[in-house]
Design a protein that fits this description.
The protein is an alpha+beta fold. The chain has a domain of 216 residues: Alpha-Beta Plaits (2-Layer Sandwich), CATH 3.30.70.20. It has 10 helices and 19 strands. The strands form 8 sheets. It has a 4-stranded mixed sheet with strand order 12-3-14-13. The chain has a 3-stranded antiparallel sheet with strand order 15-16-17, with helices on one face. A hairpin with a 5-residue loop joins β16 and β17. The radius of gyration is 22 Å and the shape is globular. Bound molecules: iron/sulfur cluster (SF4) (2 copies) and FE3-S4 cluster. The site of one iron/sulfur cluster (SF4) has 14 residues, from α3. One iron/sulfur cluster binds next to α3.
Length: 377
């Protein structure tokens, strides 16, 4: 095992291979306050990449309802239980990562889900078990709350799937940090399925190989955002490239949200993979739950997000307005004259939107046509 630095846990850790960061790292921010679980992202991916034989139960993008939804069943609670309680002190994770909590001869701590665990990707979500009387609500051991969690492969800096594969069939591209499975080398050992704590590699029983999200690399190479981003109805997603904390740029949208404003956080940083999909946590969920899921700075992230969003000319508000507004990858941005402007790497303008959305109130009756309007204001 090599010693590598993981900035998300604030310390060095053990990893199977020495540290090797790509020239650029694919990254994304998802604003969980805007996800409506319409599953358009799921279907955009499914129809593009996983509509073949053996891929029936495979969702490279899925959206689950937290705290009770999972795909596959129990994916996060099982690995959290196996890892045990880990403590954070001053931004440093003092527990063990999945690379450190291993037994002799093992590369990564993990488990392989049962086939049935993939069978009901959204069981329990938005379902009524019968007629519900007006005013009735569920009450249990905690206050009633829920939120939707969309998930893709995190194209991790320290991929557990890659570390675990005895065939060396998984690689991380130097040009963009995307993690791929070489279908010619893969022999279906499924160590990657067992190792990925996010359960984002999937075994295909027809081809006998494993497959995973490819970050829509043919689109990335053309400067386009992936399918699940471009088709997102809620406009919750922005794809770009992330720098290391020391090299963070104020005009890089991902750097700005993750490193500078610090409102977007990694999912389960304690696993130790340095995942590259970042989440703006939901504002209505108990902080204890958010801290378990997104690390110790979840409370500050929510408070900063709420404060900055109120600033009507602010950078955060402007940047959030650019989410889902262009199919191109947004590598730079600026706010000028009440508008948010998205740019490519060369600084060429891709799109501009008003920071404050204009509101037009129309009268309920249209005298010119002599009709009442139904969709006012
Ligand atoms: Fe590999 Fe899982 Fe990380 Fe994706 S999320 S790179 S499949 S370890
Ligand atoms: Fe699917 Fe592309 Fe989204 Fe990955 S990035 S989940 S391959 S649509
Ligand atoms: Fe390796 Fe996973 Fe294939 S462990 S051999 S990439 S199934």
């Amino acid at each position: 095992m090599a010693r590598v630095y993981n900035w998300q846990i604030g310390r060095e850790m053990s990893y199977w291979y020495p540290e090797s960061r790509p020239k650029r790292q694919f990254a994304a921010v998802f604003d969980l306050n805007k996800c409506i679980a319409c599953q358009t992202c799921t279907l955009a991916c499914k129809t593009t990449w996983t509509s073949g034989r053996g891929q029936e139960a495979m969702f490279w993008n899925n959206v689950e309802t937290k705290p009770y939804g999972f795909y596959p069943l129990g994916w996060d609670v099982k690995i959290l239980q196996m890892l045990g309680k880990g403590v954070w002190r001053n931004g440093v994770y003092e527990g063990l990562t999945v690379f450190e909590a291993v037994g002799r001869g093992e590369r990564v701590l993990g488990f392989r889900p049962e086939e049935a665990d993939y069978a009901y990707p959204n069981i329990g979500e938005d379902e009524c078990a019968g007629e519900v009387e007006k005013g009735v609500y569920l009450s249990g051991i905690h206050d009633v709350w829920m939120f939707y969690l969309p998930r893709i492969c995190n194209h991790c800096t320290y991929p557990a799937c890659l570390a675990a594969c005895p065939r060396g069939a998984i690689y991380k591209r130097q040009e963009d940090g995307i993690v791929l499975i070489d279908q010619k080398r893969c022999r279906g050992y499924q160590e990657c399925v067992k190792a990925c704590p996010y359960k984002k590699t999937f075994f295909n029983p027809v081809t006998g190989t494993s497959e995973k999200c490819i970050a829509c690399f043919p689109k990335i190479e053309l400067g386009m955002q992936p399918q699940c981003f471009e088709n997102c109805i809620g406009k919750i997603r922005l794809q770009g490239f992330i720098s290391t904390p020391k090299e963070a740029r104020e005009d890089n949208p991902i750097d700005y949200l993750v490193h500078i404003l610090k409102v977007a956080l990694p999912l389960y940083p304690q696993f130790g993979l340095e995942p590259n999909v970042y989440y703006i946590p939901p504002i209505h969920v108990p902080f204890s739950f958010l801290e378990m899921m997104f690390g110790p700075s979840a409370k500050e992230a929510v408070e900063r997000y709420q404060a900055e969003r109120k600033d009507e000319d602010g950078r955060l508000r402007g940047l959030l307005a650019l989410f889902g507004c262009t199919p191109r990858t947004v590598e730079r941005f600026k706010i000028a004259g009440g508008e948010a402007i998205a740019m490519n790497e060369k600084g060429e303008e891709l799109v501009r939107v008003p920071v404050k959305e204009p509101v037009f109130i129309r009268p309920g009756f249209d005298p010119a046509s002599g009709v009442a309007r139904l969709n006012t204001p």
